[in-house]
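Good morning N.,

You mentioned wanting to compare the apo and holo forms, so I went ahead and generated the holo version with nicotinamide-adenine-dinucleotide. This is what I fed in:
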Amino acid sequence: MGSEARTAIVTGAASGMGRSTAEALVEEGWDVLALDRVETRFEVAGVSVRTVAVDVTRRDEVRDAIAAHLAGAPSGTTSGPASGPAKSLGLVANIAGIYPPSTLGDFTEDLYRRVFDVNVLGVLNVTAEAVPHMAEGGAVVNFASVDAFTVSPGQLLYGASKAAVVMLTKELALELAPRRIRVNAIAPGWVSTPGNAATGRMDAAAASIPLGRVARPEEIARWVSILAGPDAAFMTGETVVLSGGDVIR
Ligand SMILES: NC(=O)c1ccc[n+]([C@@H]2O[C@H](COP(=O)([O-])OP(=O)(O)OC[C@H]3O[C@@H](n4cnc5c(N)ncnc54)[C@H](O)[C@@H]3O)[C@@H](O)[C@H]2O)c1
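and this is what came out, ligand included:
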């Protein structure tokens, strides 16, 4: 990318795998635009990262945050100086997501809209606003879930929303291939994130996973870099399942 800084957008960066991904990318030298509904600040490798308060369901908020960051405005969250060399986007990691339980018996129209708005529309909003700023060779990495492929009881809407993410990853891969932007997804199984810990089901889950444990957020985050990097240069439209063998039975 010449003299341009490599900028990565990470959504859901205040917690769990989004935060781990933001940390990993900063350590690799990326300039990170960290977006989350929640504003927070954390230190990594001596760099202070602040999430910009953006709701991914609000396309105008996403657009403004990207424009401010690329213009070098101080309001943009950055791992580098507020102004400096021109920036262009090399990576979008769509990680923000919600996973409230739902069944046919208890779902509401409001919950349906919330789950699909954050998990599906959010991916589309951020990708649509990012792509015009992306150079050839850029990558989009979406977060799906094993629940897109196998049934987690009580995750009716969530599973359907993540299946949508798997399919839109393929659709976007085809649409963006002429621009040489690759689009792939990660489908984690159980990961020890704060959101997941709150379910209280992690110990029981670990016992049933063939590799005998849940994943650490950092080992999932690592795959964002792999999918954005040269080793995945011929890969697009795919979803990588990282479940410790949970979905092969
Ligand atoms: N934890 C798991 O085991 C697991 C498994 C499979 C898939 N996933 C998926 O991975 C992703 C990350 O999961 P996690 O467990 O690290 O999540 P988490 O709950 O720890 O963090 C999610 C972050 O997304 C943010 N967020 C939620 N709605 C938002 C919105 N509208 N706009 C902006 N930010 C918003 C939250 O504030 C939070 O900081 C999600 O898409 C989730 O569905 C998680």
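The pocket of nicotinamide-adenine-dinucleotide is lined by residues 11-12, 14-18, 36-38, 54-57, 95-99, 118, 122, 143, 145, 188, 190-191, 193-196 (CB under 6 Å).

Happy to go through it together on a call whenever suits you.

Best,
F.
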